[in-house]
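User: quick one, fold this
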Amino acid sequence: MSDLSALGWDETLASAYRNYDRPDAAPARVLRADRGVCTVLDASGVSRASLAGTVLLGAARDPAQLPCAGDWVVLRRWPDRRTTVEGVLPRRAALIRRTSDKDSVGQVLAANMDTVAVVEPMHPAPDDARLERLLALAWESGARPVIVLSKSDTARDPQAVARQLGELAPGVRVLPVSVHAGTGLDALRPYVAPGRTLALLGRSGAGKSSLVNALAGAEVMGVQEIRRADGKGRHTTAYRSLVLIPGGGAVLDTPGIRGVGLLDTAEGLDRAFADVAALAGRCRFGDCGHDGEPGCAVAAALADGTLPARRLDSWRKLHREVAVESSRRAARLAQAAGSSRRRPRR
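Assistant:
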């Protein structure tokens, strides 16, 4: 594949690459990253590349700097036929979740996507709280989110479900899709047009791999059966991968996510809860806690039924989580900076 523009290569990336340009270097896009080795695609084809020391050093300071599926990187080809990743070009979008450890470290799930599809199956019934959490993550990424309601053939009235969930997602398009029935796929194809990348985000068993296969027109991702009772399944995809769409752009498939920790996603939360944020902006006092203060627009919306109590509770819960994790991250960075200043001279 000699034309990288079909994968999103543009003048902004070319400008960033000029700092690295040399006869033995080339730009490439990461298809998969696994234990210090990347599968990459450049103008000459697909190859494997190890990480250079400068990349590993940067990742030691911040694991989010490690190359990830979807990244644009700088390759260097050595006389002994080795190929190394010498740098990661600036990301225009990145899905970053908090890891499960206590240090509040970010983990990049996918990079440089134009759209994030939050995939939620219609069987069993969609989970409102999970959708809100994933939408906050999607908005924070810098890409545009959509909701894909997979397995829509299992619902009696898919459009009614889509309208209901649309109330939870102001400004987000909701697309019922059934790979089994072959319906709704045409609405997804513009998101994988040449030069565009679509990332899929959702729990295990949501149908992400089936969507990738349907868009690619071939079985490129393994699909496992799910349990009929609860609709859950094992992780079909154990790694993040960029899949090329014939005649189009690409799809970023991510492993099924059981839990998503939020980190520094205050802006994403405000966009995912745009209805609540708009109400809060109309309160009489700028520091209103929405707990009995006079002139509280949020309380008024609760009273007249405009704002469901569950929606407000979810907004508050996620904001508390982000505040706690942001504080932990700041403390960790301050401690690391202090340790660096106290390091004795040699």
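User: anything notable?
Assistant: The chain has three domains: 4-88, 94-253, 266-342.
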